[in-house]
Amino acid sequence: MGSSSESRARRWSPNQRAKQEQIIEAAKEVLARDGLAACTARAVADASPLTKSAIHYYFDDMDEIIDGAMARHMSGCLDRIRAAADEHERPVDRFWAAVRAYLEIFAERPNAALLWFSYWVDVGQKSRLEPIDRMHQAMIGVLRDLLADIPVDDAPGRAHALFSYLLGTLMQQAVRPLPFAELMPEIASVCRLDSAGPGEGRTAQVLPER
């Protein structure tokens, strides 16, 4: 949040904070439906019960609103990934369920990958990478914890490498989708799952229970 809106926020009532939430939720809807370029103050106002002038009152600029809305999208993504992992007990099954859920989110919403990469380009061009870096680190943190539970050597490094792999895979899947079963050996290699844990054996570590 920008400095001037932060200063105003200290004086906001619960009702005013609720209006700010309405703006963020409206921007989240516009982004998911129409993409980054279409997320203007007018479009957000049209998707909310508030006016365009109210939007400018509660936020310094559209970048601030978009950052908040994209953070909500990431939060929803992380919630779904954690929920998928929590359906299993074995650490290796939790890991595979989480990775599958991550890829399924984007497979179900073909525009989602384009939205994220558009946002990435936009913040890069404006030299304001902190918001998207926070989101990336949150996802890497989830992967790190899942890998550490298996365990694998250097879980932080493997989680970072896996996240980089998944970003590229999102683009590949948008052009030429591959079944998850075909991606699993590559993911296992990136994470060095074949060397994970003492005495378990490669098959026990790499493959989820059926």
UniProtKB/TrEMBL annotation:
Residue ranges of domain HTH tetR-type in the record: 17-77
Keyword Lipid metabolism: no
One Pfam family of this chain: TetR_N
GO molecular function annotations of the record: DNA-binding transcription factor activity; transcription cis-regulatory region binding
Record InterPro entries: Homeodomain-like_sf (IPR009057), HTH-type_TetR-like_transc_reg (IPR050109), HTH_TetR (IPR001647), Tet_transcr_reg_TetR-rel_C_sf (IPR036271)
Residue ranges: DNA binding: 40-59
Keywords, alphabetical: DNA-binding, Transcription, Transcription regulation
Designated name of the protein: TetR family transcriptional regulator
Taxonomic source organism: Actinoallomurus iriomotensis
